[in-house]
């Protein structure tokens, strides 16, 4: 992930990906040589140069206030540029230095605090003649920004999506957002209907449904939108050692509509590892995406081939908050209660007083068997403060719901991620059936 510390200023950071369009005025006779616009075509920055061959370039905000100035170091073997705050040349205002590698077009960026310069703080790699390059954090493979050509009539311009992750489009661009998307997936574990999954957004609106043929010889699931239109069909391959699933566009089974396939990384697994191959990856020497985690705990991470995290799945802890009177105001919060751990054979709940904001240790603990309506309440020092014993005959089975949350990162196809989650559930259901 990208580093959170600002280089120029906090006001130039955002909690989501930022798309910028940079338009050079190639034959201008004015002092302004570049214009930077946001997604709504509002001018965010200008880059100017004074009428002098030795004058530095200056980055200005929309109101023409200097933000940083770029000074080329004379007689530099590495074509070094120094960047200062505002229009200053004072060494105290130095922000960073950019140096070109001797034998290639890679640029190394060193922050002013990095006086030894043994390792760069950022690296730029790409093909500048095509106006395409990638900016990395340090010497790692963590992408913090990408720049690509954008064709516009009469102007040479290029896009600079300044987000942490490259775009991932598998199903369609209309399933992407420029910000993280939080989804809740609810599985009806004992349902006898066809609709056995529901996917909602952060506001509880239905985004997708998943229908499955329970009595089918070949396992098949259909991912539908909120209106019931088929988006993807997920089908388990017959006689597959690695339990391979194939995903097609719409409700098709035709090979020309194949989008991707998913299989277990290895036959023997203690934790879940799945490999995802796009339809175009016919050799399958390397996977295009990888899923790692513990499905038993409903917790895993989805990676792109370059190890970039594109989505995370986690179980939702049910948490109760108790307020004074009939209030919902945070100042009237008395205590909260949550499960001690995700994996439980018997009930264990932790109780935190409102004053315990760190929650490193609980103030009370509840242990027992809620199925038998028998449990004990302890103070933090293990002193028993209450006990409950109640026998209750179970006359009916209550159908439960298994709920877990998915956070999809900016510019990642979330219909694709939901499809992966459904396959993940089915593969692990098969595993639990064998245990």
UniProtKB/TrEMBL annotation:
<dbReference type="Pfam" id="PF04525">
    <property type="entry name" value="LOR"/>
</dbReference>
<dbReference type="InterPro" id="IPR007612">
    <property type="entry name" value="LOR"/>
</dbReference>
<comment type="similarity">
    <text>Belongs to the LOR family.</text>
</comment>
<protein>
    <recommendedName>
        <fullName>Tubby C-terminal domain-containing protein</fullName>
    </recommendedName>
</protein>
<dbReference type="InterPro" id="IPR025659">
    <property type="entry name" value="Tubby-like_C"/>
</dbReference>
<dbReference type="InterPro" id="IPR038595">
    <property type="entry name" value="LOR_sf"/>
</dbReference>
